[in-house]
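Why do we bother with holo predictions? Because pocket geometry can differ from the apo form. Keep that in mind while you read this record for phosphoric acid mono(formamide)ester.
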Amino acid sequence: MQTVFHMILNMQGQKHKKTLININDFSDVDVIEVFNIASSFEGCSIKGDLERGLFVNVFFENSTRTSLSFQKAALNCGFKILDFNISSSSIAKEEGEINTIRTINSIGVNAVAIRAKFSGQVGLFSKFLNENTILINAGDGTNEHPTQSLLDLYTILEHFKLPSKPNTLSGLKVGIVGDVVNSRVARSNIFLLSRFGADLSLIAPPNFLPENFASYYRSQFKCKTFYDLNSALKQKLDVLILLRLQKERMENSGKIPFPISQFAVKDQAALDDCVIMHPGPINDNAEITSKIAYESEISLISRQVKNGVLIRSAILKFLSK
Ligand code: CP
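The structure, written out:
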């Protein structure tokens, strides 16, 4: 059921040029162009070559990485930032989310990144913004987090020194482990990494990888599914993407059994040559130890955060054309 729901959501993605709501709104050619823009930014201080107007983050759910990196990216690209914070906004006076978007539209902005609590909301909000306003999905419910998947793919290409071209991940084994069913990062990464040829494995206990969900991703995206991490690691993964338990998207989260220790990375030796990634936030010592996440040479996590600024700058520049 969840899968059909997400298929319908993905079909609703706006197609006009200035939005990134679902990762499939960007063709492979678009992705490669964004990566070329990002590469051209590497190693130099990015300077906004144009006065691009106003950018605002509208985050109905908390964030550190996505929110800050969008703001830095917007400054890089020549936008001025409007300050908007849900907790000090009129949402606290029970103004609705759609009316908040209508108000921001009337005030007048040129670009907006929206993080929504529920799947499909960013697509819905797009109907209340001027058509030429740049709109980027900064994560909506369990649906998608397209900019995270772009920065993840860029980080993988950078680490393995692979070119930005179709099928570039052919032969690369990528595992996604943890709370897969509630993860928008997993979903966008399955769509994008499989498009570029990755051999994907989804790894979780059965209640976080239910059979209807697993069978859809096995048949449509050729994903392998594993119900324990050790079996998945035996196929010599190249990349392991870790996910935290997304309790904010679970009912009765305290009561849902998740055998964390069987799906966590606490012993670097068990990983062989596999590098690890994590979209963050990391729950220390749950899915991974801080030492492996931040001090080991096999971790690409800090690189992912750094590349987040680069990729979001490139997306803003691409959508500003
Ligand atoms: N990866 C990610 O979305 O992190 P934040 O919630 O901190 O933005």
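DSSP finds eleven helices and ten strands in the chain.
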